[in-house]
Amino acid sequence: MQLEKMEPIVKKFYAGLAEGKYYARRCKECGAVEFPPHLACNACGYHETEWCEVSGHGHLIDFTVPGPQNDKPYLRAVGKYAYGAVEIDEGSQYTYVIFGVTKKNAPDLRDRLKAGEVVGVHPKVIDREGYKELCFELD
Known about the structure:
The protein is an alpha+beta fold. The chain folds into two domains: 1-54, no CATH class; 56-139, CATH 2.40.50. Helix content is 18%, strand content 38%. It contains three helices and eight strands; from the N terminus they run αββββαββαββ. The protein has helices at residues 8-19, 73-76, 106-114; strands spanning 22-27, 33-34, 49-54, 58-64, 81-88, 93-99, 120-128, 131-138. It has a five-stranded mixed beta barrel with strand order 4-5-6-8-7. Strand 5 (81-88) and strand 6 (93-99) form a beta hairpin.
């Protein structure tokens, strides 16, 4: 999808990625941060949220290495990756592409997560046709 055809809530998020900024929405009632942004709060259901900028940094919660049927050539061209759940420092959780996870390091990485170790991640924005895609990469 081209950036100029996106809805305003999505457009600001993707325009921010192009500028190296990470925009979220903060609930005016409970303060929960929605990242990626949503118009309503998923924590309390309140209907009013406002734009805020977040660091984008966080930690890996869990991951899965894709099998051949789920492999994406455009991602493979960027590097080794997995799909994983990330919690950003501001508290919001979502599933993203995580670069730096390989079949070789996956068992050790899984053991570290099971042992309670915090495995840091940082944003990695990749180019797609007409827009940027937010992924993460192991620290």
